[in-house]
Design a protein that fits this description.
The structure holds three protein chains of three kinds. In chain A, about 35% of the residues lie in helices and about 25% in strands. Chain A is α/β, with parallel strands linked by helices. In chain A, strands 6-7-8-3-9-10 form a six-stranded mixed sheet, with helices on both faces. Chain A has a four-stranded antiparallel sheet with strand order 2-1-4-5, covered by helices on one side. In chain A, helix 5 (about 120-135) crosses helix 7 (about 155-165) and helix 7 packs parallel to helix 8. By secondary structure, chain B is mainly alpha-helical. Chain C has one domain: MetI-like fold (Orthogonal Bundle), CATH 1.10.3720.10. Helix content of chain C is about 75%, strand content about 0%. Chain C has helices at about 5-25, 30-40, 50, 60-65, 75-105, 110-125, 130-145, 150-175, 175-185, 190-215, 220-225, 245-255, 260-285. In chain C, helix 5 runs parallel beside helix 8 (about 150-175) and helix 10 (about 190-215) packs antiparallel against helix 13. The longest helix of chain C is centred in the N-terminal third of the chain and has 31 residues, at about 75-105. The chains are: A alpha/beta, B mainly alpha, C mainly alpha. Chains in contact: A-C, B-C. At the B-C interface, helix 1, helix 3, helix 4, helix 5 and helix 6 of B face helix 1, helix 2, helix 5, helix 6 and helix 7 of C.
Chain lengths: ~260, ~280, ~290
């Protein structure tokens, strides 16, 4: 589907682990700015692989190849320096990954440290407060900023990781099943948070939880065996899917 | 930090290892050359004479190669009856319990004691016992050295074999029990076959340690430069002849000692690489 | 087919377990015997002057023995020498060892890294007496004399493979997500390793360094041909110097000084055991 204001565009993207097996097959899609787009599908359908390609995570593993184009604001990120891309593209992983040796404070600023950017004390304080406020963690941790991030609960850790990604003011935030390791209450917190955040940042979220996709996303993709089967408004897809396989998945007849 | 510079630094640090190892081989070979050249390589290895009277210098490595092999093999023989039970104790019978933890701490502390202290203990405690048992008149000798050497290698053999005993999958053990086997039968029929190659390779590595052990052997073997007639007699190992004479040697004798060092280096290198290779293979299976 | 009676099988089962327990318990005997003997014979020698005074000359010791007095002096020269040589070795071996270990963990699949890994094993298994010969050829001969520098080179070569291994192994067991999360924030490889991975691996690497120190602190053979020994307290690094294990070896060979053996051994033994137990504690804490 053509969008008015796309920030990210996949053009015939293929990801292969070996010559024979393609994890993602010729996916083309546009992602609209300042919205939440969900990617759904049974496990092994290539949804995480596609998401990780946007952050060039495949560069870490020499056996993975990505073909096609991924355009971020019109520029193909596959030809850009990974470090420049990753600064503009934030990522939140399935399990919370606060850096174990850093305090909460340092974790929020980790993006700057890792990019070799020096901030003044004022800038640091402001960034930490505003980022933690934007993930509504500030009130909970403002007195324990010097504690290690790993002391927080799972939900708090995940919000810390979102704050850490937001600190670099990314154009787009990738989330790889960010609530699958969390309890229902923490999950609800994160979902509410994402709905607030979409005013400032574009969110692309992989989820195996159909309810979650329905609750928070404005558009949804359904992937199956590496192919993008259907991409539509979330409401339309859930009420009237056009493909049989999407229907089977949404009605629980397929894993 | 610039990524390219950092990569280069890492690479250079890694390059030090080949440089050091190559340097060791190069230095040993060039400095041993005189001895090999003078006596002939095979002749040097098979001659049992070691005399350094001026004019009639004759050096051969056979007594020391024999001494090293004898002490090592005896140490292995004395080590197995203790290291195997420790491995079973820690890895099977009391796996994961506090008492197993205590025993493995004890063995790791045994491994930490410096070899010179083992030597002292052997000299002042074990040697009088050997003497009082009328095994050998002066108490020191190949047997005494091997006994202490055995104590020193028990921790290595035991902790490595325990690792392999621990790795035997529970469902295999349960299979044996479900067929009515007792624990002892399960150990014999399941643990030994499954963990066997790993246990075997841990003994190879223990041998590698015993071969090069210097101070303990030097203090206990008696330091006589001739072929030992029996295990209760005195002798010298490759490491101990070097430790004893290197400081005062020069010329042909120095070169002969370095030649012995080269032989010792090659033997330990081969044994260790075989051991490591077998361990890696045993871990995969 | 011969069938054993059940009672017989159960008896064997119990017997095996009993034998395993007894033999396993017996391995504790040497540890207790060694610590006991060294403690028993050495504890009354430990005094302030034992740690502050250098070794007496054989003549002084003889006179003291003849007069029925305890031998004067101590092992201060050895302690100073050990600290100087070990210090220099640690300062060089730790950074190089860590960098090399990081390289091996980063490039575990490359051919060169595999070769380096094998060579690390090789160096780790090389008998210490050979490290002594090598350092003699490399350092003592060109410098035309025994020195603390030579001694520390020998200790450096012995520590290096231990630190490389512990760094490599610790880096390899760090979760991959840690590295991915660091890179996802736009950090380059170098910064992610320095700021995220190495700090997270600190416990393991520190344990490895402690164990490496405890391994080489008691080494005698390589120091005999490199540091040689010296009866004075000395701080210059280009002259022969003593070390605690070297002193023990000297005392062992000099009938006049034999009564100093046990104090020196006790000091060395306690220090090594302390390092070992600390390392084990840190490793346990870090693993949980």
């Amino acid at each position: 589907m053509e969008l008015i204001n796309p920030i990210l565009e996949f053009k015939k993207v293929c990801v292969s682990y070996t010559k024979q097996t393609m994890a993602v097959k010729y996916v083309s899609a546009q992602i609209e700015q300042n919205s939440i787009t969900a990617i759904m599908g049974p496990s092994g359908c290539g949804k995480s692989t596609l998401l990780r390609a946007v952050n060039l995570m495949h560069n870490l593993y020499p056996n993975i190849h990505v073909d096609g184009e991924i355009l971020l604001n019109g520029a193909d990120i596959l030809t850009m320096e990974p470090i420049d891309v990753r600064r503009k593209v934030g990522m939140v992983f399935q399990r919370p990954t606060p850096f174990p040796t850093m305090s909460i404070y340092d974790n929020v600023l980790a993006g700057f440290t890792l990019n070799g950017i020096r901030l003044s004390k004022n800038e640091r304080e402001e960034t930490v407060e505003s980022c933690l406020r934007s993930v509504s963690l500030w009130d909970e941790v403002k007195d324990v900023l010097n504690k290690k991030g790993t002391f927080l609960s799972g939900g708090q850790q995940q919000r810390l990781c979102i704050a850490r990604a937001l600190a670099l003011k990314p154009d787009i935030l990738l989330m790889d099943e960010p609530t699958s390791a969390l309890d229902p209450i923490a999950t609800k917190h994160i979902e509410e948070l994402l709905l607030q955040l979409k005013n400032d940042v574009t969110i692309l979220i992989v989820t195996h939880n159909m309810g979650q996709a329905k609750r928070i996303s404005s558009r949804s993709m359904f992937m199956y065996l590496g192919e993008l089967i259907e991409y539509d408004d979330t409401q339309k897809m859930f009420s009237d899917p056009s493909d049989e396989r999407t229907k089977a998945y949404l009605t629980g007849k397929m894993g | 930090m610039n990524d390219k510079i950092f990569r280069t630094i890492l690479y250079l640090a890694a390059c030090l290892m080949p440089v050091v190892c190559g340097g060791i081989v190069y230095a040993l070979v060039t400095d041993a050359f005189e001895a090999f050249n003078h006596f002939g390589f095979l002749n040097f290895l098979t001659s049992s004479e070691w005399s350094y009277t001026d004019g009639t210098e004759r050096y051969g490595a056979l007594p020391f190669i024999t001494g090293t092999l004898l002490t090592t093999l005896l140490a292995l023989v004395f080590c197995i009856p203790f290291s195997l039970p420790v491995a079973l104790f820690v890895g099977e019978y009391f796996k994961g319990t506090r008492i197993a933890e205590v025993l493995s701490t004890i063995t790791s502390l045994l491994a930490g004691i410096p070899s010179i202290i083992y030597g002292l203990w052997g000299f002042y405690t074990l040697r009088p016992i050997v003497m009082s048992l009328n095994i050998s008149p002066q108490g020191s000798g190949i047997l005494t050295a091997s006994l202490v050497l055995a104590i020193m290698i028990v921790p290595y053999a035991a902790s490595l074999s325990a690792e392999f005993v621990k790795m035997v999958p529970d469902d295999l053990k349960e299979g044996a029990y479900s067929l009515g086997a007792t624990r002892a039968e399960m150990v014999r029929k399941v643990i030994f076959p499954v963990a066997g190659s790993g246990i075997f390779s841990s003994y190879i590595l223990a041998i590698g340690r015993a071969l090069g052990e210097t101070m303990t052997v030097t203090m206990l073997i008696g330091n006589t430069n001739q072929m030992p007639g029996s295990i209760t007699e005195t002798g010298n190992s490759m490491a101990s002849i070097i430790a004893n004479q290197f400081g005062e040697a020069d010329g042909l004798r120095l070169s002969s000692l370095i030649a012995i060092g080269l032989v010792l280096f090659l033997i330990t290198a081969i044994i260790n690489l075989i051991g490591k290779y077998l361990i890696k293979r045993a871990r995969i299976v | 087919m011969q069938k054993k009676k059940l009672s017989q099988r159960l008896f064997i089962d119990r017997l095996v377990k009993g034998v395993v327990c007894v033999l396993a318990a017996l391995t504790a005997v040497p540890l207790i015997a060694i610590i006991g003997e060294v403690l028993w014979k050495g504890y009354d020698q430990l005094s302030w002057s034992f740690f502050t005074e250098p070794t007496p000359t054989a003549y002084k010791a003889m006179m003291a023995t003849a007069a029925g007095e305890p031998i004067p002096g101590g092992i201060a020269n050895g302690i100073v020498g050990t600290v100087i040589m070990l210090g220099m070795a640690v300062v060089i071996a730790v950074p190089i060892g860590i960098l090399c270990g990081v390289y091996l963990a980063e490039h575990s699949k490359s051919r060169f890294a595999k070769t380096v890994s094998y060579l690390t094993d090789l160096l780790q298994g090389t008998p210490s007496v050979i490290i002594g010969i090598i350092t003699y050829i490399w350092v003592v001969v060109p410098m035309k004399g025994y020195s603390a520098i030579a001694g520390s080179v020998a200790l450096f070569i012995m520590m290096l493979p231990l630190i490389v291994r512990s760094t490599e192994e610790t880096m390899k067991i760090l979760p991959a997500s840690l590295k991915e999360a660091g890179l996802a924030l736009g950090g380059n490889n170098a910064r992610v390793i320095l700021k995220v991975q190495l700090p997270a691996a600190f416990g393991g690497i520190f344990t490895g360094v402690l164990l490496a120190v405890s391994r080489v602190i008691g080494e005698t053979a390589p120091l005999m041909f490199t540091a040689l020994g010296c009866s004075m307290i000395r701080f210059s690094i280009d002259k022969p110097i003593s070390a605690v294990p070297l002193l023990i070896w000297e005392f062992f060979n000099d009938p006049n000084l034999q009564s100093l053996i046990w104090g020196a051994s006790l000091f060395l033994l306690l220090f090594v055991l302390f390092l070992n137990l600390t390392a084990k504690k840190i490793a346990n804490k870090w693993n949980s």
